[in-house]
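The records we work with from here on pair a chain with its fold. These numbers are not coordinates but entries in a learned vocabulary of local backbone shapes. To see the layout at work, look at the sequence and tokens printed below.

. . .
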Amino acid sequence: MKTFLGFFIMIPCTVVANLLMKVGATTTPSRILLGLVSWATMAGLGVFGCAAFAYAWVLRWQPLNVAQAFAATQFIAVILASSLILSEPIPFTRWIGIGLIACGFVVVGTTTGQG
């Protein structure tokens, strides 16, 4: 249950952080931040920090190879969010890649605990 909670926090944080980083990369840097980065970039970095803490918490209970395989679901979530929120297209070949990531997630999930 702790592992699920950690991923339940980490994956949405990663999605939000990536979206903020994209918005920040396409907006004018903030004068408050010395004209170097936008507020969205700084917010994205902060949310990435929250995701990192959640992932570190997951690693207390899961082997790295299992945790990293489950964390790969964030790649699918970010791609889908970029399409839904930023209207970025997802070509058919990219859907194949998404499917392969999902298959890997299923394989790891069904073999976890086997030695």
In short: Residues 13 and 105 are 19 Å apart (CA to CA). The chain has one domain: 2-111. The helical segments are 2-25, 39-58, 64-71, 73-86, 92-111. The mean pLDDT is 88.
